[in-house]
Amino acid sequence: MNRAHEKIESHLGLRCGDLVEVLSIEEILRTLDEHGRFESLPFMPEMLPFCGQRFRVYRAAHKTCDTICQTDGRRMRNAVHLEGLRCNGSAHGGCHALCLLFWKEVWLRRVPYDSGSTCTDHVSQEQTDMLNMDGDQETIPSLLSCNTSNLDGELTQYSCQATELFRATSPLHWWDIRQYIQDVWSRNVSLSSLLASFYFRFTANAMACLPGYRLWKGLYNKVQILLDGSPYPIIQGSHRKKTPKSTLGLVPGDMIKVNQLDEIVDTLDLSNRNRGMKFDKEMSIYCSERHRVLQRVERIINENTGEMIELSNDCIMLEGVVCRSKYSERRIGCPRAIYCYWREAWLRRD
After folding, report:
1. What three-state secondary structure class fits 291?
2. Residue 54, φ and ψ in degrees, nearest 5
3. How many CB atoms lie within 10 A of CB 258?
4. Burial code of 266-297, b = ≥16 C-beta within 10 A, e = fewer?
5. Gap between the Cα atoms of 70 and 170, Å rounded
6. DSSP-derived 3-state class of residue 316
7. How far is it, in rounded angstroms, from Cα 333 to Cα 326?
8. Which of 38, 136, 293, 325 could form an SS bridge with 254, CB 3.0 to 4.6 Å?
9. What torsion, rounded to 10 degrees, do the Cα atoms 85, 90, 91, 92 define?
10. Cα angle value 8/13/14 (rounded, 5°)
């Protein structure tokens, strides 16, 4: 990796739907420092198979959520997410999180609309397997050395975009209106969707500060019915001891139906958790819907420590079921699209 950055265009002003080409391995390596990063964001081995290919911009990654320190949102400079490109964990102990990859604009080039070129619509297994890559084989060990280290000679500590995200971003307060202007300009969200999120926050704040809880909630739900939206998502579990468990033995490809919200509430404790897993209000959007099982999640990297966590209880991912950031207090419009985790107690076979 070249220690000195060349003069490469790092601001392309990309928006959703724009067609881009990922630079070659050699070009990207020239942008990285000795730690395999650009502006503190790692370029990971899982990203190498996509070099030289063309993709559509999925979202402008001008902001993201803080899953490490749990502060306000975080501002990201000159980065995007590309359609369908998620980390398969092949260089990080087989992590199952399937995080959406961040791409700095310095690693991309814009493709003119009149070029007649098309994007890559499908990413094959061979393309996502770093061991089958035909590129510079010295690149993989070099990047791997920047992504792993040993703790006490036994445990492996992983470094990835998720673990380094706090250092690769800067503070962004929820009340900074510029982020919402950028959301709409970049086509990340529609104006109507953004206004719906503001309406929810207004209602939630009114219910917390003003009398008439039932009145505010009823008004919100009536408006949501007119807009064909979801009912008020803030819930409260009641279990004080053990929460119930359900075993469905789900495998990838199975069709399920998400339980109704009140059925899920019946499985939660006072902190809205079932055996330690929280049911987030963002997940209420999917209640009563039918989806296909994507995978069982058995191991994920702890973003705070970089250590691998082996999950002992059931944890399910559903195809296309991701956080839409509609209801959260400090991350409205976050484009990160993290997969939701589900207990089998919240699902039923369809």
Report:
1. strand
2. -110, 140
3. 24
4. ebbbeebbbeebebebbbbbbbeeebebbbbb
5. 13
6. strand
7. 6
8. 293
9. 90
10. 105
All residues at 6 or more sequence positions from 20 whose CB lies less than 8 Å from its CB, including other chains: 12, 14, 54, 55, 56, 57, 80, 82, 108, 109, 110, 111
Measured over the CA atoms of residue 194, residue 197, residue 198 and residue 199, the dihedral's sign is positive
Token digits of residue 54: 């063309």
Quick one: pLDDT band at residue 143, thresholds 50, 70, 90? confident
At 21-75, the pLDDT tens digits run 999 999 999 999 999 999 999 999 999 999 999 999 999 999 999 999 888 899 9
Strands 155-158 and 41-42: unpaired
pTM of the model: 0.89
- Tell me, what's the pLDDT at 130? 43
**Cβ 340 vs Cβ 286: under 8 Å:** yes
